[in-house]
Structure prediction request, 246 residues.
Amino acid sequence: MAVLNVNIDHVATVRQARLAEEPDPVWAAAECELAGANGITVHLRVDRRHIRDRDVELLKKTVACKLNLEMSMEDEIIEIAERLVPEQVTLVPEKRQELTTEGGLDCADGAKRLSKVVERMHARGIIVSAFITPDTNQIKAAAAAGCDAIELHTGGYANAVGAQAIDKELRKLIAGVDVAMENELVVHAGHGLNYRNIGPVAAIKELHELNIGHSIVSRSIFVGMREATAQMISLIDKYSPSDRRI
Ligand code: PXP
Prediction:
């Protein structure tokens, strides 16, 4: 049965649109927690386009549920994680021009660097998850590097059009979950999940955490952050746990 981590990056996106002080992602995190979120996820990008250092510092002090820091393997950001010690980091690839994280981390090609980062995080007691596509080689490489968990990229599923294409992407995710379980990895999932497409993913009972951001922040404009989070939690609960895999 999966639990929800709310990614609050886009609360900060609205703030940064005016380089202002509001809306404050720290307030948003409290609202998510009050709605029953399992965790708060923020991506401290090297370009600081949304979440800023000040946000992560305050969130570390105020978030009572899990704080999941999404980050690249840049030295500067790794040092921040080592200093702040979030409960979990999710390692992602990062490109300057991208609108959002594109593709998964290449754990096979960057195996040496990944192992080193995992070692540094583990030295601080931080859980390490790697954001990857549901590809067997990538999953095995993440396990070999010592990752505790993987976050399966659900973008392919979310962007698929038509029942057949959606089903094909869902099957890739389920196959990825199976390989991850065989390799003793905890499995998370996220990217592009929303109130309409969450059902079949939430029904994959081996999934532990779902990281969802844009759809929740979008809905919060109309119903508030607490209600938007509560609505997503109740949908996840409605579809899981279940013996049904598709
Ligand atoms: N997981 C990862 C690794 C991400 O990079 C993102 C986007 O920041 C998400 C989950 C959340 O995606 P979305 O905002 O589409 O829900």
Notes: DSSP finds eleven helices and eight strands in the chain. The chain has a mean pLDDT of 95. The first helix runs from residue 9 to 17.
